[in-house]
Amino acid sequence: MKHLSDHHRLWFYRILTLIATAILVHIAAVWAAPRLIMQVLMHGPMAKTMNMQNQAAFPPPVTAASRTVVMPSPDLLYSVCVFDMTAGPVRISANPKLQSYWSIALYAANSDNFFVINDRKADGRPVDLWLVSEAGTSDARPIPAAAQVVVSPSKTGFLLMRVLTGDYETEKTVIEPARRTLTCSPA
After folding, report:
1. What is the pTM assigned to this prediction?
2. Which end of the chain is more exposed for a tag (fewer CB within 10 A), N or C?
3. What's the CATH superfamily of 50-186?
């Protein structure tokens, strides 16, 4: 077998380094980046200012200057909650009673969307969710009869409620009370 020359050996190690670097960058982008983004979203300055740990928060309407959400839609009002099930289940409820679009989406700590309900799926009924962790807890509280059990893949995560509004100023008296029916609290 022929031995590699110094020149070939140098190129072999360069290619090996490039492949290892590409693998590490890929892992960082695919695995670490979503988790880091969610940690900043759930525990960063906005979360602390809005005090949204296991309680609903209602940010002001989006304007052209808003950039807390990448490319926010001025046609949507957002409501948020950071849920934490380390002490037990979290109960989420809402009863918007709107004729227009609304949705509630739940995201795991790694940014995966694991549950969505909207106006069509709710079909005019109130939303009553009993959120439990896939990892489980020692909590054995009875689940309310009307509640829908939703299993979260992580003990912490993020709730995003969207409410469609064509003209916020005109619809404010209807839309604000509707979105403020959202509750997110320890069960």
Report:
1. 0.82
2. N
3. Domain of unknown function DUF1254 (2.60.40.1610)
